[in-house]
Design a protein that fits this description.
This protein is of the alpha+beta class. The chain has helices spanning about 20-25, 25-40, 40-60, and strands spanning about 1-5, 15, 70, 75-85, 85-95, 105-115, 120-130, 135-140, 150-155, 160-165.
Length: about 170
């Protein structure tokens, strides 16, 4: 393509040919132009793929790894273990599960708190009421080597087992 370079008189002209201009570029610049956005920003592409994979993993696994929440007989159970002043304090919360397809009813419950690996245990009998939040607590002395608390919840001929590690004081 040829045309006047300026409006002043004279025989000035400019010449534009993209292929000729790109032929004068160094090799590394020519290759970068052909790769596109993701080819030129390889590190950005790797970060984007990492974030995408992590998001997908969490999206599919999150319903299965909700810590401490378990459902049994129309109730949702959550457990908290605390190490305080040489004692293992365990709190078990039972609430009516709003998402459950089973209606919660008032019922006797047996809760066994067991400290592992030694196997010491404490059994608590209580009555679950569907119209309020139910708290069941256990307290046992901390001994050297105690690692986790296993809780067995039994009612309506069903059993649920929950485990949680004993945190440091």
């Amino acid at each position: 393509m040829k045309g006047p370079e300026s409006r002043s008189p004279g025989d000035f002209a400019y010449h534009y040919n993209r292929e000729e201009r790109e032929a004068r570029l160094p090799d590394y610049m020519r290759e970068e132009r052909k790769k596109g956005f993701w080819g030129r920003n390889r590190h950005l592409m790797i970060i984007f793929i990492d974030i995408l994979v992590i998001s997908l993993v969490f999206m599919f696994l999150l319903p299965y790894i909700r810590q401490g929440n378990h459902v049994l007989g129309g109730y949702s159970f959550s457990m908290k273990v605390v190490n305080f002043d040489g004692m293992i304090l365990t709190s078990l919360k039972a609430e009516v599960n709003p998402e459950g397809d089973m209606a919660a009813s008032a019922s006797d419950v047996t809760v066994t708190f067991r400290v592992l690996p030694e196997g010491r245990q404490m059994r608590v009998y209580d009555y679950l009421q569907p119209d309020r939040e139910n708290l069941i607590r256990g307290r046992m002395p901390l001994r050297e080597g105690d690692e986790l608390v296993r809780t067995e919840i039994s009612f309506n001929n069903e059993t649920l087992i929950m485990e949680e590690t004993i945190p440091p004081e």
